């Protein structure tokens, strides 16, 4: 079931994105999982996908591999 959530404002999206990028760079597993949960639960599906698609290009291949290993 799809829920209609109001879009998250751009300042909040930027803060969450930067926090996630920093947490991945520092290999902070708990912080990354909390931020991913926030993206999943707080953002509309399209907005969350857009954020993750933009963020994934900023990560190094080793950081992407590390994130894959969290699942």
Structure report:
This protein is mainly alpha-helical and 71 residues long. The protein has four helices and no strands. α1 (10-25) packs antiparallel against α2 (29-42). The longest helix is centred in the first third of the chain and has 16 residues, at 10-25. The two termini are 23 Å apart. The model has no long low-confidence stretch (mean pLDDT 91).
* Helix amount: over 70%
Range of strand content? under 5%
DSSP E strands, number: 0
The oligomeric state of the chains shown is single chain
Compute the gyration radius: what is it? 12 Å
- Structural class determined from secondary elements: mainly alpha
Shape: globular
Task: Tell me about the largest β-sheet.
Answer: none
| SSE arrangement, N to C | HHHH
Give me the number of helical elements. Answer: 4
Provide key terms for this protein.
single chain; 70% helix; 71 residues; 4 helices; mainly alpha; 0% strand
SSE topology sketch:
Elements: H1 10-25, H2 29-42, H3 45-56, H4 61-68
Helix pairs in contact: 1-2
């Amino acid at each position: 079931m799809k829920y209609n959530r109001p879009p998250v404002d751009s300042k909040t999206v930027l803060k969450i994105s930067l926090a996630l990028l920093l947490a991945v760079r520092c290999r902070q597993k708990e912080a990354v999982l909390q931020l991913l949960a926030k993206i999943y639960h707080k953002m509309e599906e399209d907005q969350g996908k857009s954020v993750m698609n933009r963020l994934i290009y900023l990560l190094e291949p080793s950081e992407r591999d590390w994130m894959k290993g969290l699942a």
